[in-house]
Each structure stands twice: as C-alpha cells, then as structure tokens.
Give the backbone structure.
Amino acid sequence: MGMSTYNGFDGEYRQRVQDELHAMWTSGLWEPPSECAVCAQSDGAVHGHLEDYSRPETYVPLCITCHLILHMRFRQPDLWDEYTAWVRAGHRPDPQTQRGGFYAIKKRYLAGQSEHWPGRKVNPVRRATYLDALAPVRFVHPNAPADQLL
C-alpha cells in the first residue's frame, strides 16, 4: 500500500520526498531522526514527519506513536484531544517498533482510556507540544504543487 494524499501532496510525491530524506539520512548529510520532538522518546521507531513536503529539511522527529496519533487527528478527534492532553501532562508512550506501534494504537489507544495506555509519566508537565501547533482540520498546504491539489 502506497502513501496517501496529505495536505495536498499526493502519495507518489510524498514517497519521492520520503525516499530523498532517507538517502540524506543514510549518506550522513542530514542527521536522522533520533528523539521524538513531542515526548522525547528515543527508543524504538522514530520517524521524520513533514507537514510541507516541498521543504523536506523541515522534518520533525516523531516516535511511531506520536506520528500515528498525529495522522489520526482528522478521523479520531477525541483520541487526538485525549492523547495531546496525556503528553502535555508529562507522559511518554512506551517505545514501539513500526509494527508494534500499529498494534498499540489499535489495541490500546483506540480504547480511549488513557489510564491504561502503554507509557509512563517521565516528562515535565507542559502547556503545549508540537502536536498542539498542528491544524486539527484537513487543509491544503499553500506550498502543495498546483497539479497535486485535490
């Protein structure tokens, strides 16, 4: 299954940019993502998330859990609200592999009971994180190529 359209960038375009990012990280020209900018998780899968695929240098490192929840914000707004509050309260999700992240989301997070989510309170309480700066509704990024628009 390929990448889907996101913020006005179609899946094929997103995949090309993602491949370029991986090449930069592998070559050592850019530092690969190693610690989540939201929860400070450094173990398990850590991705480079992009809101603007026309500027790959702006990637934000996110652990698999924060990344998956971020992409669920349109379909699961209640989960989004609960998760962002949980992280602001100082919680960090347990480290997950790529496959483990999908399993944790499906089996634990979607139940909507944060007291049972896999993780610990290890971070200071914060007023906001990177997640709080994101648009909670779908939009087309102003830098999306005109031929990519929906």
